[in-house]
Request: fold
Amino acid sequence: MPVEKPKKKMSVPDGLWRKCDGCQNIIYNKELTENLFVCPKCGYYFRLSTQERIKQLLDENSFNEIEPNLETTDPLNFKDSQKYSSRIIKTKTKTKLNEAVNIGIGKINGVEIVICVMNFDFMGGSMGSVVGEKITIAIETAIDKKIPLIIVSSSGGARMQEGIFSLMQMAKTSAALARLSEKNIPYLSILTHPVTGGVSASFAFLGDIIIAEPKALIGFAGPRVIEQTIKQKLPEGFQLSEFLLEHGQIDMIVERKELKNTVSRILNMLN
Reply:
């Protein structure tokens, strides 16, 4: 009896499937995209790129970027396991971004706004001098144009490679937001997973209305550091957005599929 030749193994193209970090199931990428990068099986929220966030929040083709070419320098000639300047170059090449935040003017259901979108993939969304400068420029643009401001935060905090220069951005952005408030211009802060450190301690928590995505980690120091400091076990779910809502630290939790319309309704009421 002749031996059949083994059938040629079919190759599966890259990018068709993705593993969920929540439930470990394999998800068809098209299904995940259609569900706004929320796992259809367990509800796990995948992190969005800058472009994906802008596409989901803003009207189509309405985003006009401001100061896209502002780039980080190395004011302290900092070096840890590698030079800070080398780390920046590698991160820019990997993410195709110039910094951890993009700012611009766009529209949400026809309402013109200034928006800042932070990206955790760029050095943990850390805030250095350029991030602080770009956010301040965005705030000043909202003041000049008398239109609402939205900041979408995703950050591990201040960028330690810039030392005091990064910490100064907390005061700089907070002062700019005080001027925005004096003009009675609305500021909506949207917190995504995670928002910690100097970002949570400055502009992220200064919104007129603070919105969070479900199960986002939000706080200043990490749970382990807090437990070691106070010598106590923290409550279940401590620093998740649901815990913060229950204790009055944020105003609402909004699912990703409802975020654009919710923001639109708030803007219409505040305007």
Observations:
- The beta strands are 17-19, 26-28, 64-66, 101-108, 111-118, 149-155, 187-195, 209-212, 252-253.
- The radius of gyration is 21 Å.
- The longest helix spans residues 164-182.
- The longest strand covers residues 187-195.
